[in-house]
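Progress against Task 2.4 (sequence-to-structure conversion) is shown through the following example record, which the project officer requested during the mid-term review.
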Amino acid sequence: MSETATGEGFHPDRRRRARFLPRQLVSPATLPLLRRLQALWSWRRPRDVEVAQLGDGVRVRLHRPSATMTPSPALLWIHGGGYVMGRAQQDAALCRRFAAALGIVVAAVDYRLAPEHPFPEPLEDCYRALGWLADHPAVDSTRVAIGGSSAGGGLAAALALLVRDRGPVAPVLQLLIYPMLDDRAVADPDVVDNYRIWNAKSNRWGWKSYLGGADPDRAVPARQDNLAGVARAWIGVGTFDLFHDENLTYAERLRAAGVPCNVEVVPGAFHGFDMAEPTAPVSASFFASQCASMRTAFAMETGRDAR
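Structure tokens generated for the chain above:
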């Protein structure tokens, strides 16, 4: 029997935490309770966060560094939650870390959730938020990145495709953290016992909720035939993540289409490993790689402007 089949093989920084995390957290049965708990947890707003209402229940939470020159680079951050749950506030600590580490403005969007609001509504909400951010007086519209984790990473990838075709904003980077990219994902039998938080059953339901009656060939990033012309990418994923194979396949397709793509694979890491314990060394290294990729993308655009 393999190490993965016996529950071994987790990254040393994640092994203890993995023992206590469920293989499936979100389901039709648990969704109402999880949404209520999240609403109770996220009702307060820190003093240093500005909130803008964009209409239709869509909001943007703006995080600014303590000191920066304006206009500054910016990141549009899209939260995860399988397309069916989550709020921008859940990633407030991460957004503050990005703002402080990079000296940038970070805008986290509260998009509408499936199944009540299926495709294309969540994606259009993110598109509207990106336009709002690019027009903000504190932001350099030529140095805007888009990013997200899990379903938020899937929306960021879809947004990169949408703005390629529609404009007017041209992101300098798509930061895709274990992104949810393909509704056809199949569990790897060699590591299925080590999936945590999100498994194939969750994935099928999440995609069904998001797609509604939409054509997957139009709505799912991994089903797009043409990936050329989108923003350069950073993709990070663990080997014990359901999305591992689809993420690496997407990275290969981006490169084949002429899109630069850095990939960070974390051995023995499960879905959401860095959110479970952000201060662990493996999580800190994962975060540092994301920051390095954004610094490079912002600097490249600055150099292009200088020329």
